[in-house]
């Protein structure tokens, strides 16, 4: 594999892992009642999902035999970051923006 391709794979791998760490850290510092108020799964469930997805991305690389586990991890982290995180922020901000 050319050097440029290896560099691109490395950047994608670590950017995904960083997204997983951000998702886990955000899930860790949120209030437990905010998850139920936002009509999402509970805090321990999201901690398990984001923690497991981050571990999968650390253990399995973006390129290789375990790529399917890496892809499942990035999908789980992105679901948290794109769907759950904005709802939690909205609920904790208080009120609706009409």
UniProtKB/TrEMBL annotation:
Q: Name one Pfam family in it.
A: DUF2516
Q: Which residues cross the membrane?
A: 6-29, 67-84
Judging by the UniProt lineage, the source's domain of life is Bacteria
Write out the entry's keywords from A to Z: Membrane, Transmembrane, Transmembrane helix
Q: What is this protein called?
A: DUF2516 domain-containing protein
């Amino acid at each position: 594999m050319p050097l440029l391709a290896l560099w691109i794979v490395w950047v994608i791998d670590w950017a995904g892992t960083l997204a997983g760490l951000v998702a886990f850290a955000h899930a860790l510092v949120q209030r437990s009642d905010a998850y139920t108020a936002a009509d999402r799964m509970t805090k321990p469930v999201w901690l398990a999902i984001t923690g497991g997805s981050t571990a999968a991305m650390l253990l399995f690389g973006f390129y290789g035999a375990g790529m399917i586990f890496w892809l499942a991890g990035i999908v789980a982290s992105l679901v948290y970051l794109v769907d759950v995180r904005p709802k939690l922020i909205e609920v904790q901000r208080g009120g609706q923006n009409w």
